[in-house]
Here is the input.
Amino acid sequence: AVYMCEVERHSPQVFQSQDKENLGRLEDPLPAVVGVTYELCAGIVDKPGLSIEEIAREEVLEECGYCVRAADLRKITSYRSGVGLTGSRHTLFYAEVTDQMKTGEGGGQPEEGELIQVVEIPLEDAMKFAFDESLPKTPGVILGFVWFQNNIAPNLPKK
Here is the structure.
């Protein structure tokens, strides 16, 4: 969706055809990177018999490569996203990870269309990153960074 919005912004003529079956073609396609965004680790709650924490734990392992215990996930809040389109309910968790908990590369499931690269943001750059409008990100990323800044960062040892 992000990529298509950028196509429309750069080449609005592609979408001006009234014939939806024969939309215009891009003569000079945009690079795929314009559709890449910064996002939190996430997944669909679609596994009967598993708690939301257990599903979140599986997603952390699959997407980020860290093995966390479901009991170590701290629920922050739940909120609605895409309220004009899907009305999706999101539940935001916090987990601390260490290098010793890294058991895989992460990266998600390419066969499901996932293209995931784990990105580490230094604490001193966190709020600048969160509010840098040139870096495409979801509102959940901003919420997570603000929550962390208010609830975890003040209790970290000072350098």
Observations:
- The longest strand covers residues 74-81.
